[in-house]
Amino acid sequence: MWVVCLLFVSTSADAQRERQRPDLRERRVFPPGHPRYVPPDTQQPEIYFPQAPVPGKWRRSIGAVFTTTPPELTEEVRVSVPAIDFNIQRGLTKHLYFAGRIQTQVVQSNLGIGLRWATQVSKRTFIGAGYDLNGWFGALQIKDVFNSQAYGVQTFPSLSVGYRLTRDVQLSVRTEAILDLYYRSQVGNLAVVYDQRRINGVAFTVVLEQPFYDNKHVSLGLRAAYSNFNWQLWSLYDTFDRNLFYPQLIFGFIL
Q1: Cα separation, 86 vs 1, whole angstroms
Q2: What does pTM read for this prediction?
Q3: Residue 143 confidence (pLDDT) above 80
Q4: Alpha carbons 195 and 136: distance in angstroms, whole number
């Protein structure tokens, strides 16, 4: 009986000390060396996570983006069109950095440059904003029967939120507005040109960045674009004047 009473008193005293020191629980659960312990100002290999590289330092990744064609364009045939995806970033200041991106599918390519700003708002949460300018072009020629080409310019203002799940695993969510600045397509001697600024659609991206093997990290995510036009499918010359859903799978090795 006395032993039970002593244990009860000891447990109550420990609980009282935890209530008086609310940070005690966090230090016990997430000490240095624990998988969920995150040191201050942690820099992990990342491309989508809204954290600026160290000023003067580069970040790179190479991978692929798979875009599934909407059934409105290809009917019962669903084609996943892969594009080589190369990203490069360079820190300019503590919060500002340059971003460049190249996507190519041999017959068409997309080159983008932009500026990003990011800051840390809590121990694990980061936010960022960006503005990208993209130019795309493509050419398709079938002997002397069919000869077409097209190119255009788009911009992507964006907002991002990142959350560091553990020291090595990071989750990023990005929302983008898609704006068309210029479009020109030509088949033989017939050309179509649009040079008025208009909102083409929106896109939402969720990316998880984590270790893969041998201290290498990868980016794995999904991008859902709801827009009136997708540069990868320009050669289909769709006649729909409405937004369609373009799902994309993103995979990249962070170099």
Answers
A1: 71
A2: 0.79
A3: no
A4: 15
